[in-house]
Amino acid sequence: MSLISVVIVLIIVGVLLWLVNTYVPMDGKIKTILNVVVVIAVILWLLQGFGLLSGTGVHVR
């Protein structure tokens, strides 16, 4: 996976998270939990992609 693909995925995830936060009526606590879960998942995905987290997966070249 190239660096451009990573940037595109980050932009898409950011826009989707913004859309959910803006247009989906939810309690503030649920939105906070959702945001934290998505951010942690993206950080773990990036760490794994850059090879800083052990395991098999996507590797950025």
How would you explain this protein's 3D organization?
The protein has 61 residues and is mainly α. It has helices at residues 3-23, 28-49. The protein has one domain (3-49). It is built from two helices and no strands. Helix 1 runs antiparallel to helix 2. The radius of gyration is 14 Å and the shape is elongated. The model has no long low-confidence stretch (mean pLDDT 88).
Question: What descriptive keywords fit this protein?
Answer:
mainly alpha; 61 residues; elongated; 70% helix
Distance between the termini: 7 Å
* Largest sheet features: none
Beta-strand fraction estimate: under 5%
Q: Return Rg in Å.
A: 14 Å
Helix content: over 70%
Number of E-type strands:
0
Number of domains: 1
Mean pLDDT: 88
**Count of discrete alpha- or pi-helical segments spanning 4 or more residues:** 2
Give, in order, the helices and strands: HH
